[in-house]
Amino acid sequence: MEIHNHNLNIHYSSPEDIWDKLAELYSEMPGWSGFIDGIPHWYAQDNDKRIINASVEPSGLQFYAEMQQEEWNTWFELFKTKASATLGLEIGEPEDGFEFHIYS
Q: N or C terminus of the chain: which is more exposed, having fewer CB within 10 Å?
């Protein structure tokens, strides 16, 4: 298992409808376990050693994962693709040049 920490360009100040759309998307992703103490989790059940969770941070929507690199890459790319389609914005990592869309 490897540890992964990645941020996406989804700003913490995004309006409620963005978070509602993301909550629906979360449940459609492979390994969905539900919200545990308000935090979305994937794979964290039934002695599965894999885990993914997400949190809203000033640096963007942050993902923490413990899983094999190839499986993580596939899962994370799927999330970015689905989030881009769901939100109508290009979703990616700020470190890769993806800018935050700030709502006013």
A: C
